[in-house]
């Protein structure tokens, strides 16, 4: 009889643990595609082409780009995408030359920037990390390509962001000569999305949903922002309700007041710093700047241009996930004063111009 109860008790525990683990895994999976409202989990549905298949035994040398271009219909769409990517780079160059945007676009290639760039020496690739734009997937691809793991599936989650151990070094860890050589000769890319949508994503991910269990955003950073930027302190309960998007917007748009706080917040600010500050695109000549809104096309393009398309494929992207959602933006900014939104835009307009995102007039006027 006693054994019966012990057995039942053990089953209960196993069940509890299973429930917890499943919940954890589904959170991770959501995080892979960064924040989104539906909370859908990307499904793979047994399609091995769609799955994150890495290192399937294809030899790098057998994948000559020229052979790929011969495939008729693919060839037309590819060259069409080549010209879209080229147009983006031309726009970037033009905006980099605009002197009135100079201090928003020209960023010295500091250690901070070199810390953002990851090195795949085996395939001569540099990848600049821009959080909230699907970077985890790219990091996994590069970790697998670097050879420390035989496939993307084998990379433990906690290792993806542990750059001491995952075989994906930061550019800053190399000598100045090694850095210069790689910046000159390697294939370089990063991904952007609509700057305001990214801020909303960072806000929801770090202060509302917090899927990676990072308590410092809500417990350390949020109270400091609230203390300085919340309009009304009358109601002490307000503080308990957590950071509001309005507080966040006021903090981000406050050029002077932000400096001291950002030093205090350390590396965590990478989630809302501008793309220009993270990757210095006017001072480093990137080969491709992918757009999250067209991720499927851009991922294919990047894999091809980097010469790794035979080795790895980007996972199937659930339809609609990466689409720009104006309603979501309007909803987040509703009730926030025009003055605060305009200050925010002033701070982020370099990113809007550099990467060809239209000015969000519907919020500013
Ligand atoms: C598998 O995924 C690939 C790439 O996403 C797609 O082209 C193909 O049609 C899919 N096949 C099936 C059977 O779903
Ligand atoms: C430079 O940027 C400013 C601010 O967006 C804009 O008003 C101006 O037209 C730009 N100048 C050129 C030459 O593009
Ligand atoms: C850009 O420079 C101008 C003048 O040098 C300064 O007033 C402004 O605050 C700077 N903007 C930023 C975002 O640093
Ligand atoms: C856009 O965002 C709104 C509000 O967050 C949401 O209700 C809607 O489903 C989203 N639309 C799409 C197409 O994802």
From TrEMBL:
<protein>
    <recommendedName>
        <fullName>Carbohydrate sulfotransferase</fullName>
        <ecNumber>2.8.2.-</ecNumber>
    </recommendedName>
</protein>
<dbReference type="GO" id="GO:0030166">
    <property type="term" value="P:proteoglycan biosynthetic process"/>
</dbReference>
<keyword id="KW-0472">Membrane</keyword>
<dbReference type="InterPro" id="IPR005331">
    <property type="entry name" value="Sulfotransferase"/>
</dbReference>
<keyword id="KW-0119">Carbohydrate metabolism</keyword>
<feature type="region of interest" description="Disordered">
    <location>
        <begin position="36"/>
        <end position="78"/>
    </location>
</feature>
<keyword id="KW-0735">Signal-anchor</keyword>
<keyword id="KW-0325">Glycoprotein</keyword>
<comment type="similarity">
    <text>Belongs to the sulfotransferase 2 family.</text>
</comment>
<dbReference type="GO" id="GO:0008146">
    <property type="term" value="F:sulfotransferase activity"/>
</dbReference>
<keyword id="KW-0333">Golgi apparatus</keyword>
<dbReference type="GO" id="GO:0016051">
    <property type="term" value="P:carbohydrate biosynthetic process"/>
</dbReference>
<keyword id="KW-0812">Transmembrane</keyword>
<keyword id="KW-0808">Transferase</keyword>
<dbReference type="InterPro" id="IPR027417">
    <property type="entry name" value="P-loop_NTPase"/>
</dbReference>
<dbReference type="Pfam" id="PF03567">
    <property type="entry name" value="Sulfotransfer_2"/>
</dbReference>
<feature type="compositionally biased region" description="Polar residues">
    <location>
        <begin position="42"/>
        <end position="56"/>
    </location>
</feature>
<feature type="transmembrane region" description="Helical">
    <location>
        <begin position="6"/>
        <end position="26"/>
    </location>
</feature>
<keyword id="KW-1133">Transmembrane helix</keyword>
<dbReference type="GO" id="GO:0000139">
    <property type="term" value="C:Golgi membrane"/>
</dbReference>
<dbReference type="InterPro" id="IPR018011">
    <property type="entry name" value="Carb_sulfotrans_8-10"/>
</dbReference>
